[in-house]
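Hey, I'm writing a tutorial for new members on how sequence and structure tokens pair up, and I'd like a real worked example in the thread rather than a made-up one. If someone can provide the structure for the chain below, I'll link this post from the tutorial.
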Amino acid sequence: MSYGFDCDDGWFNLIWTLSQKIEDSARQAGLEPQSNAWPEAIQVKQKMGTLRFYLDNSTEAMTALICKAEEDSTKICEICGNSVSTMRGFGVKTLCNKHEQENLLETSVIRKTPVCDGKRINMPKNEKTSTLLRQWEMMRMLTVSRYDNKQDGRWDKASEITAKLNDAGYTVSVRTVQRDLKELSEIFPIELNDKNPRDYGWRWIKDANLNIPGMSVSEALAMRLVEMHLKQLLPTAMLDGLQGVFGLAKTKLDEVEKHNNNHSKDWLNKVRVVQPGQTLLPPRVNQDIQSDIYRAVLENHQLSVSYNAAGSKEIKEYVLHPLGIIMRGSVSYLVASAWDYPDARLYALHRFSKVTILDSAAKAPNGFNLDKAIACGFADFAHRGETIQLEIRCEEWVAAYLAETPLSADQTAKEEANGWIRLTATVNDTWQLRWWLMGQGAGIEVCAPATLRAEIKAALIDAVNSYA
């Protein structure tokens, strides 16, 4: 033991029992005594009336055992081991009535201002503030349960939260996070998964009414809009982590409306996103498949998939390199290249029947950029990936619409003698362009390119024949 013991004998049984439980946990985890992975106590001491037990090679389960013992120490006299109902000794020691009186002078604390070289030292005052901010951040990170059964859903491990806090600039140990969560769970509706000793975790209980300080009204409104309109674009792991923030945003808007007569929440009932075309119900997507696809995109992993292309009755196997996600109307698409082919294609999420995340890293085609691809008509199902000089004749109502929302920046218009308008514009050669031209019916005549004119003419003749 590197630093030894520094506490009285009253906690001997508590420490002995804890040590046995740690060894039992190590054996259950398959660890061998005397191995480098075997847990080793490096310091055992008393601090502010509570046991502190520091352990090398600690696991999540061992850390939970230590936290429980530390909590129990606040009810055991440090000197004699008798039970105490409350922590005594001015917060410096945990003592029974008898030993509190005997050690009154020893446990009394007189705080003095430190002096160095005759000058007073101003001690830092931001420790409590930093702890508070860290705990706020920690509570924001917790997943909100969507299940009534504790066996279901995701739990946040202390080790995962510790890593996120360290990434956010808070230097903290797993032990500290365990202790904080234990204390916070006594104040807030946070539940602990203690059924599986290898998978201890915390989360907000279902429908928890969160009220964590630190979110402004504008931030709360923005998060509610994200929840309403962008949830299906977020990876599942991130979405679960944001449930607490979504709940906090809702609570914040409810509170400011109730107490401050602030009607920011009403904005949610006054803003809607409407599709410009015929409304279509979204296809059903397997949530587990979507979750794995989003994870592969986020972590840049290849996918082994089973996919049924549109118009095909055969399910085929592919190895895909995920490049991004596009949501087009009510349908979400994976942007990916297959095997070693250089071209990227769209794969509708609802057509995947099986996906497996591979260890191999995904490789993007040389020069691929999602925004540039979309600008070239990729999301509109580009016909040949080229631009064309479109020339059309259209009725006045179509021309008026296109004057407000042009086909391109170089669109020009010229009025003809019969009241029709001749328009020219440089556009992407896509299937979406064809669907739009067909959708205008008799209000548009395609003049050029000649190949497109012939294609639209043939499609319209077929349509007329269908009504014959």
